[in-house]
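Shape matters. As here.
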Amino acid sequence: MQTLFPPIEPYKTHAIPVSDGHRLYVEECGRADGLPVVFLHGGPGSGCEPWQRQFFDPDVYRIVLFDQRGSGRSIPHAVLEGNTTQNLIADIETVRATLGIDQWVVFGGSWGSTLGLVYAETFPEQVLGLILRGIFLCRPRDIHWFYQEGASFLMPDHWKDYRDIIPGAEQDDMVSAYYRRLTGEDEVACMAAARAWSLWEGRASTLLPKAGVVQHFANPHTAMSLARIECHYFMNNSFLEPNQILNETHRLHDIPGVIVHGRYDVVCPVEQAWMLHQAWPTSRLQIIQDAGHSATEPGIVDALVTATVQFAKRFQ
């Protein structure tokens, strides 16, 4: 079974200005003249973590990671103005052009899979291949499943902590109720909402409890950007047309793709990966039988690292 490559540090970092006063933290790792790959983190709003560099062989890949608007080390933190899917797609192109990269492999999980798909459907000529994990199509039904009703039946204990900070009279629309608190002037209520929102996602992300994953989601810096930015996107249908991703998959026809999804993914049920594969039959779907949503689970790590190794051989 494949495991992560050893830890590495960036050989170069950048602060790249984009529109609306945002400045992106970007790092390059691995081999400066290697096969370019861009890592798209989840959320939106979670930011990158050092271990995510380790999906790629540093002797082969030029590894580009960046924190999306409002996330991680990008500034300003947790800001919603100028923060849309279209802006993020433009930012990916800005990063690519700034670094002088013609084409690259796109690697993303959860929201990163959403963003990677929309980017590839918008700029297919820039994408050598797609490696996607935990497919998130961002349809209204997908948001309803996790934030209103569905996942609640599988994890009622954790759901109670998410639900109970919202008064009963507002619980028929949890996303709107959270949005009012996450964008309101009461800082205490905002932080409580951010923590509850983020912990719900962290606790649901793994098949078996994993303290390190929950700790990441509980971090106040991460929780605030994750909750505010996710809720902002979901209030706006993720700035996508209805069923946009599946309707545009014909644009992926010439792009090789690997889809990795946990059988017991509670955050993004496997139906989303299945529907994507049906619409994009040239992709390769791997359903990991003993995994949930998180990229930290051994079977998912194995499949993702295997895919990066195979793509390295294919595109070198």
About this structure: Residues 187-204 form the longest helix (18 residues). The chain has two domains: 12-139+239-315, 141-237.
